[in-house]
């Protein structure tokens, strides 16, 4: 049975390397996190490569992998060896012409506890994800594991309160957000502080509104692989927040780090008893939320 308390970790890394090297690196860091007591461990979004969505290039589809191949085999064995849950975000090749931005949730025995496919797909300058990724079709899910019931969303999903709510309503203790987000270097001075602040604030808000723990795992480093561009400076700042939005652990902007915090289900229940937002939801009045706009 899952425990009333368990430790979670997010790993913040520079992943601007080839797949084989990134895999070896991530395995090493997961081992490190487990040795420090982490029981549920999340890697950043698209762990196995540089952030290739800076351009629209069909050659980048070669970075994708079929289900249950390289990443699953490696991390399934690792999860079983270490007795931990691992969240592995990867570039999924579903079939020729259909690709997803996905994440395995691998349980302590090496089995698949769940698969999540990113639901919200952005299309911004140097974040051209719609070119690569078909929107997820598995919906929002909370996955029971041997350590706890966890929800996994991915990056752009973090801006949507509906995604957090629907996952929390299924009983997730923690919302994990594997992430690849950063500044356009030429805009950082003018907009950087507000952009980063908004990113943290919206996820802290999800923690408060749903009485859940929130854990965001970002990458770091300047990825400037295209000629004549400034690239993307990934801002790191991975964090774990408690059910009142309190910051339990936060990383730097530019260092590889492991963050660990404890999930306390008794505390979570106490918070929800005192701030009964779920009790007071007016579900009879929310029907219009499924409309694109209320004209």
From TrEMBL:
Pfam hit, one: CN_hydrolase
One of the GO BP terms on file: putrescine biosynthetic process from arginine
Please verify whether the record's keywords include Acetylation. Answer: no
Specify the CN hydrolase domain's residue ranges.
Answer: 6-265
Query: Which terms are listed as keywords in the entry?
Result: Hydrolase
Query: What's this protein's name?
Result: Carbon-nitrogen hydrolase
Q: What is the lineage of its organism?
A: Bacteria, Pseudomonadati, Bacteroidota, Flavobacteriia, Flavobacteriales
Q: Which PANTHER family match?
A: BETA-UREIDOPROPIONASE, NITRILASE C965.09-RELATED
Q: Name one GO molecular function term.
A: N-carbamoylputrescine amidase activity
Q: Which InterPro entries match?
A: Aliph_Amidase/BUP, C-N_Hydrolase, C-N_Hydrolase_sf
């Amino acid at each position: 049975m899952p425990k009333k308390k368990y430790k979670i970790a997010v790993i913040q890394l520079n992943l601007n390397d080839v797949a084989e090297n990134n895999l070896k690196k991530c395995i090493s860091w997961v081992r490190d996190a487990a040795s420090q007591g982490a029981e549920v461990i999340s890697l950043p979004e698209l762990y196995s490569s540089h952030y290739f969505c800076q351009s629209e290039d069909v050659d980048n589809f070669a970075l994708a992998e079929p289900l249950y191949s390289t990443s699953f085999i490696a991390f399934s064995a690792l999860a079983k060896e270490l007795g931990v849950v691992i969240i592995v975000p990867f570039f999924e090749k579903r079939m020729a012409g259909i690709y997803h931005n996905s994440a395995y949730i691998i349980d302590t025995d090496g089995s698949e506890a769940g698969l999540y496919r990113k639901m919200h797909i952005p299309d911004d300058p140097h974040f051209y994800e719609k070119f690569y990724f078909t929107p997820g079709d598995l919906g929002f899910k909370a996955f029971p594991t041997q350590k706890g019931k966890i929800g996994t969303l991915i990056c752009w999903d973090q801006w949507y309160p509906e995604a957090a709510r629907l996952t929390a309503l299924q009983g997730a203790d923690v919302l994990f957000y594997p992430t690849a987000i950063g500044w356009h270097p030429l805009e950082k001075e003018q907009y950087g502080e507000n952009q980063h602040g908004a990113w943290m604030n919206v996820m802290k808000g999800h923690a408060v509104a749903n009485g859940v723990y929130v854990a965001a795992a970002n990458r770091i480093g300047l990825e400037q692989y295209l000629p004549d561009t400034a690239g993307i400076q990934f801002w790191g700042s991975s964090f774990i927040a408690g059910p009142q939005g309190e910051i339990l652990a936060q990383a730097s902007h530019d260092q590889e780090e492991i963050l660990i915090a404890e999930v306390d289900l008794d505390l979570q229940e106490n918070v929800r008893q005192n701030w009964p937002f779920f009790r007071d939801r007016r579900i009879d009045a929310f029907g219009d939320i499924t409309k694109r706009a209320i004209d």
